[in-house]
Every structure is written in structure tokens, then in C-alpha cells.
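Notes, p. 3: input format for complexes.
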Amino acid sequence: MKYGIIVCPGCGKAKGVGTEKKTTTCPCGREIKLARIKYQYETDSPHELAEAVAQANALIAGGEKLQKEKRSRKKDPYTMISEKAKRVKDPLERMGLVASELTKMKDEFTEDDLRRVVMLLGKSSAKDILARLQEHNIVYESSDGKYRAV
Ligand SMILES: [Zn+2]
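Output follows (150 residues plus zinc ion):
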């Protein structure tokens, strides 16, 4: 095989090289010794090589993106509340917990706040839940459109 693909240990990018070479220098400046490196892909066709390098780099870039998204996906308070609430089996008790957590977080919460948690819990209507919570005196309307857990 005349050509191979390596992944640069410096910048992590895929690079096509001639396998007869002893060393190569990556665009990032890193000199790579080819003697002991394992080729990710080998081919005799320069055209195939170029395609494979592009593919490998797309995969690598995709992986980086995924990792970055994962890292930046910090749990927002609504998710945290919904996760806490998931452990409570009784539906009313569960919504009571959500209401009191929202109250702790925001002092007063709106139907919209409730909806954000309710959506994560897979229940449909925040309005109904709010009505039930008020019915059971778990939540009261503290000011116009704002609610607090008792
Ligand atoms: Zn490099």
C-alpha cells in the first residue's frame, strides 16, 4: 500500500501520508515518526486517500462537536427539579414537590415555569396540575399569575 492515514497526536486530525516516508509534518507543526505508527486506513489510490481523509476528519470533527455539546449541556434547574420529582410516585405529592422546588428557586413561579418541569415529566397540562395543586391547598396564587407552594 502506497498511502495511509494517520491521526496526528498533536492536533488529533487525520492526515494522509505516503507509507514509504519515515516522518511527516502535520500542518499543526507536529513532526510525526511513521515507523511505529499504525495506519488507520491504507490504499493505493490517492483519490481514495483524499476521500478517506476527508471522511475521517468529518468523523473526528463530529465527535468533537458531540463532546462539546455534552460538556456544555449543564443541567438547568428545571431538569434538576424534574429528576428529583421522578422519584416521587404519588402524582399529587410529586407535583407538590415540583411546586415547592420552584418556590425555593424563584420565590414565586408562573404556570410557564411549572410547564417546563411538567413537560420533562411527560405530563400534559400544567394548567390542570396547577388547578389540582390549588384545590388541595398545596399552592396558592401569591400575586397575579404567580404562585407559591404553601
Ligand atoms: Zn497535527
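The mean pLDDT is 89.
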